[in-house]
Design brief:
By secondary structure, this protein is α/β, with parallel strands linked by helices. It has four domains: about 150 residues, Alpha-Beta Complex (Conserved hypothetical protein from pyrococcus furiosus pfu- 392566-001, ParB domain), CATH 3.90.1530.30; about 90 residues, no CATH class; about 90 residues, no CATH class; about 190 residues, no CATH class. Helices cover about 50% and strands about 5% of the residues. It has 25 helices and eleven strands. The strands form three sheets. A five-stranded mixed β-sheet has the order 1-5-3-4-2. A four-stranded mixed β-sheet has the order 8-10-11-9. Strand 3 and strand 4 form a beta hairpin. The longest helix is centred in the C-terminal third of the chain and has 31 residues.
Length: about 600
């Protein structure tokens, strides 16, 4: 930069033109008006900086001091003090940027636009950093802000985004910026937008993909020729570390559209290779039916070859057991969720392939034995709860609430049910296989309300439907269901034993012991008759069933009496009786 002394002249205001390269484009109105009043009273106290306009004698380019020039124009000064220097284009740019950096109200985007002009004139990142006394990372991040589209720039100028969140959006392809900006500016917690950390995590989770888990060869430049290989791509975080300081990992793709094109191209290639080799490829609706959601078990009798074979003492995967030759006979399932191709095989074929390797699979593709045991346990619990629920319904005596109360209770309870329980209720009443809306349920309640007992039954069904099936991840008891069972003269223990007896597997292939049983029976009977109380339990069971009906009938006047009295909540909670409805409650 030239350092010769510049003379201070008073130049006609109309001989000065604004510089086309000045990065400062926004001038706050309040500050402008304040400066206008100062100039009106005191004049221009500090000269502006100008240079002769190229090829136009008598005209000057305003290098620095545009705010003062604007104020002088409003006041209509004829002359303005100015320092006149002979400056090159690069020197003008450097002065404008440095001078503006000293302004506290300079917007990061205006600063970025200034660096962009220098970059377009051939200045390297290192040169710009040196010229403006900033770090290389700082300048690189500011320059990246120039990639923001018009709508996102407006949000930034309107202070809906800060420099850090704006940079996160600027790193994304232009067609994704509006969507990402909308998400980052939306209210998040307590009516506030996301914090910088939460915004970074959201962008990384939603718009970035791991190249080390890509279903294609990232080094294949011919896969999508226009994109090339992923390694040298500028959209790979490892290639621009100064822009992706907040992103964990170097092998991250920041262009989801390009990633999707490569994934699809790789899938097409793999499908073609598989079909050429005579392998079946399952796609479309068939693939969706086989894999309803990304993390579900395969349906339709198919097994993933990467699943563990639990009949194998070494707990190898099916792929490891049957080997590469066996895999070639498997089908390929194209996941409808992420496009990945999965090696699968029908259970029958897999069972045969395992037998050839010396492994007898009782049920290829079955889940972990411990999981199977849990499922069997749940099935038994479901059967017990279902039977208890059925008997409770049969023993229903009526209600102490009027019809309108019951309608309100029914709709309120229905609203709070999980979707699965709503489905169960609709199936129970033959309203269809799917859950109906609250409005449709209210109509059903109105239809039932004409029959008070039916309405009471519906309310109790809603209250107990949740406990009619055992929860998957809980071992708790159906406390409400067992409590109401006792109230209605049903012994939950008897029901449980009966269900478990009915579900006990019966021997299928033991004809010989069945024939030998009659002759062997007299000996144990003769010896054990004095000590074995076999007849007593039979009478006891019969006695429990008979009183159940009598107790239920006897309860009617008691229930009617209680319904007439309607004790207050205080009387209920201050009572010396155990708190209902827990299972140990003994009610009359």
């Amino acid at each position: 930069m030239q350092t010769e002394q510049a003379s201070i002249d008073f130049l006609p205001l109309d001989s000065i033109r604004k510089s086309p390269t000045n990065p400062r484009k926004r001038f706050p109105e309040a500050e402008h008006l304040e400066l206008v009043e100062s100039v009106r009273e005191h004049g221009i106290l500090q000269p502006v900086l100008v240079r002769p306009w190229p090829d136009e004698p008598g005209l000057f380019e305003l290098v620095a001091g545009e705010r003062r020039y604007r104020a002088a124009s409003v006041v209509e000064l004829e002359l303005i003090p100015a320092l006149v220097r002979d400056l090159t284009d690069d020197e003008v740019l450097q002065i404008q940027i440095v001078e503006n950096l000293q302004r506290r109200d300079l917007h990061p985007l205006e600063e970025a636009d200034g660096y962009k002009v220098l970059s377009d004139r051939g200045h390297t990142l290192e040169q710009i950093a040196t010229e403006v006394s900033q770090t290389r990372t700082y300048v690189a991040q500011r320059l990246k802000l120039c990639a923001l589209n018009a709508q996102t720039r407006k949000l930034f100028f309107d202070e809906k985004l800060n420099a850090k969140t704006a940079l996160m959006i600027a790193r994304l392809p232009t067609d994704l910026q509006d969507k990402a900006a909308k998400e980052l500016t939306a209210t998040y917690i307590n009516g506030e937008p996301r914090s910088v950390k939460a915004a970074s995590e959201h962008i990384e989770r939603t718009y970035m993909l791991r190249l080390d888990q890509a279903p294609f060869k990232t080094a294949d430049a011919a896969l999508v020729p226009a994109a090339g290989a992923c390694g040298p791509c500028p959209k790979r975080t490892g290639n621009q570390p100064e822009l992706f300081e907040d992103v964990r990992g170097k092998e991250i793709c920041t262009d989801p559209a390009c990633f999707a094109k490569k994934r699809e191209a790789a899938a097409v290639q793999k499908r073609a290779d598989a079909e050429a080799a005579g392998r079946t490829v399952i796609t479309g609706k068939e693939a969706k039916a086989a894999l309803p959601n990304q993390y579900s078990q395969l349906q339709g009798g198919l097994v993933k070859l990467d699943d563990t074979c639990y009949e194998d003492p070494k707990r190898r995967s099916y792929r490891q057991i049957i080997g590469a030759k066996g895999v070639k006979a498997a089908a390929l399932l194209e996941s409808p969720h992420d496009g990945k191709l999965i090696d699968v095989m029908p259970k029958a074929d897999l069972k045969k392939a395992l037998a050839d390797k010396g492994i007898e699979a009782r049920s290829a593709g079955a889940s972990n034995p411990s999981q199977s045991a849990e499922l069997a346990k749940k099935k038994k619990a479901d059967a017990y709860r279902g039977e208890l629920f059925r008997q409770v319904r049969e023993a229903h005596d009526g209600t102490g609430l009027d019809d309108f109360d019951l309608k309100i209770v029914a709709v309120t309870f229905y609203r709070r049910l999980w979707n699965e329980n709503q489905k169960r209720l609709c199936k129970l009443y033959d309203w269809g296989k799917t859950a109906i809306s609250e409005a449709d349920f209210a109509k059903k309640v109105d239809e039932i309300a004409a029959d008070s007992e039916a309405l009471g039954r519906l309310v109790m069904d809603i209250a107990l439907i949740d406990e009619s099936v055992a929860p998957t991840y809980s071992t708790g008891k159906p406390e409400l269901l067992e409590a109401i069972a006792r109230e209605r003269g049903i012994d939950p223990g008897v029901v449980r034993k009966q269900v478990e007896t009915d579900m006990r597997p019966k021997p299928k292939e033991k004809p010989a012991p069945a024939k030998k049983t009659p002759p062997a029976a007299p000996k144990p009977t003769a010896k054990a008759a004095p000590t074995k109380p076999a007849p007593a339990p039979a009478k006891k069971v019969a006695a429990k069933k008979a009183p159940a009906k009598k107790v239920t009938a006897a309860l009617k006047p008691v229930i009617a009496k209680k319904a007439a009295k309607k004790p207050s909540p205080a009387e209920i909670f201050n009572s010396s009786e155990p708190a209902w409805p827990f299972p140990n409650t003994g009610r009359p």
